[in-house]
Prior knowledge:
Helices cover 41% and strands 11% of the residues. By secondary structure, it is α/β, with parallel strands linked by helices. Helix 1 packs across helix 2 (46-60). The chain has helices at residues 24-42, 46-60, 69-76, 80-86, 97-106, 119-128, 151-161, 175-184; strands spanning 11-14, 110-115, 137-140, 168-171, 188-192, 209-210. Magnesium ion (MG) binds next to loops.
Amino acid sequence: MHALDWPEIDTVLLDMDGTLLDLHFDNHFWMEHVPQRYAERHGISRAMAELELLPLFREHAGTLNWYCTDFWTRELDLPIREIKREVAHLIALRPDADTFLAALRAAGKRVALITNAHRDSLTLKLERIELAPWFDRLISSHDYGFPKEDPQFWQALQADFGFDPARSLFIDDSLPILRSARRFGIGHLLAVRRPDSRKPAKDTEEFAAVEDYRDLLP
Length: 218
Ligand SMILES: [Mg+2]
């Protein structure tokens, strides 16, 4: 991991799930817990539940629906908000993410959380992990009506939060989202090597990746 050019950066934009928080919670929720509850709710086998769910997940990946608890509650006839609480003990910070956030504050950077997570999911996570005090703003893309994958998200963010893209650092574990940020002109981009602590390291293709937040401290 190469050192960042901190004097060239005054705004830091951070994704939440897979970047500051361990993606294990979300992966476990969608790939294990939802299929289980769906099978029980509809009186079908677990294998049948996966057969029905996986094409739906694929169809909506990368859209706002994918991140919308109301959408999935309707679509699956499952109380998504409530069943998330059943596995909320799995919500956890990634190693040293809090050290990194504290250092950004100490260095006087402007810091915003920008997430595709629905406000409900954001609220649940902030109840478990004390992230809010580190940020100037907590922004859900649902507030703007466009996910981070969409160029219109970035225009709305700039109108709302006012930042110089060239002097901004953005960290996200999603490569399509990093590419969307790059098209908008964000000057400093980093992926995440291991968003899910239970899964192997990820190939981040053309992007440098955070291996260890302690290497990034300003
Ligand atoms: Mg993420």
